[in-house]
Amino acid sequence: MEESRKYFERALVEVDALPPISKVFHKIMELTSEGEAARAELIHCVSLDQGIASKVFQTINSAYFGIRQEISSLEVAVGLLGDKEIRDIAVICTSSGLLRSNIRGYGIPADQFWFHSVAAAVAGRLIAARLLPDMQEAAFAAGLLHDIGKLVMDRLIEEPEQEVFKELAEEISPGYHSTEMDLYGFDHCTIGFFLARKWNFSEELTAAIAFHHYPDFDVAHGKFIRVVCAADLMAHLAESDELEPGQVASLKEEGKIPIELSHVEVEEIFHNLIEEIDESRSYLRI
């Protein structure tokens, strides 16, 4: 118990040491409606962040879109890309500095951690489109940020434990949280909760981060949490690009895909996920 308390105190010091997330992220998360007023706000918001605006122009003027004349108007760029793509670029730009990190204690390189985060974001939106259509953008953000607690937990993992976590990385559904509980008395979900509170995330986003490995807990926003839990697993599956025969049905029977969709529907979402990831590699540099 005393050892666990010391680890927890160290973790909270690391939570305090992490810089605040961009204010632009919070503003972008507010702009989820489709009206012209929201688009005008979106354009204004993007214009205030040079990094996001540069990425928008880089994207629209890339070979992927094949536009011959260079686009230099942000309003035109937003109109051509669409609100969803602009939101994706903005949210990802404001998060990439945080999430494109090596988490050496887990044996996960930066590109792999970033890929998993983006894949979970896309999967979250695809699942929410069928189950919680009004929360698609929130599911995208929750998928992107669900593992932020690992950024702190990584700093607690010492060399003797690193091999244990590296072995877990080979599993389809790595049980990082269980091993963290055994070693430290708390997990990355708990630390993610404190980070989410520090950064003033919404209630549903905070809940998804705190409980994405505990979909059976009777807490507020349970359905949303289960969407993010399923998105996390699908992101792990996406690392292999294809499903094994009967794999989804088996995972559903084990309770690892805790959403009210048939295995056929889940397989459809998986194939859509792979397609969207392939497209995202081209213009979001995943």
Task: Tell me what you see in this structure.
The model has no long low-confidence stretch (mean pLDDT 87). This protein starts with a helix and ends with a helix. The chain has 16 helices and no strands. The radius of gyration is 19 Å and the shape is globular. With 286 residues, the protein is mostly helical. The longest helix is centred in the middle third of the chain and has 22 residues, at 110-131. Helix 1 runs parallel beside helix 12, helix 2 (23-30) packs antiparallel against helix 6 (83-99) and helix 4 (50-60) crosses helix 5.
Q: Compute the number of helices.
A: 16
Beta-strand content estimate:
under 5%
Q: Gyration radius, to the nearest Å? A: 19 Å
CATH names the topology as Hypothetical protein af1432
CA-to-CA gap between the ends?
41 Å
Give a quick account of the main beta sheet: strands, pairing sense, barrel closure: none
Report the count of strand segments.
Answer: 0
Low-confidence stretches: none
Task: Based on Cα principal axes, name the global outline.
Answer: globular
Q: Provide the succession of SSEs.
A: HHHHHHHHHHHHHHHH
CATH-derived architecture = Orthogonal Bundle
Mean pLDDT score, rounded? 87
Helical proportion, percent range: 55-70%
Say what oligomer this is. single chain
CATH class descriptor = Mainly Alpha
Summing up helix and strand content along with how strands pair, one would put the structural category as: mainly alpha
Question: How many structural domains are formed by the residues?
Answer: 1
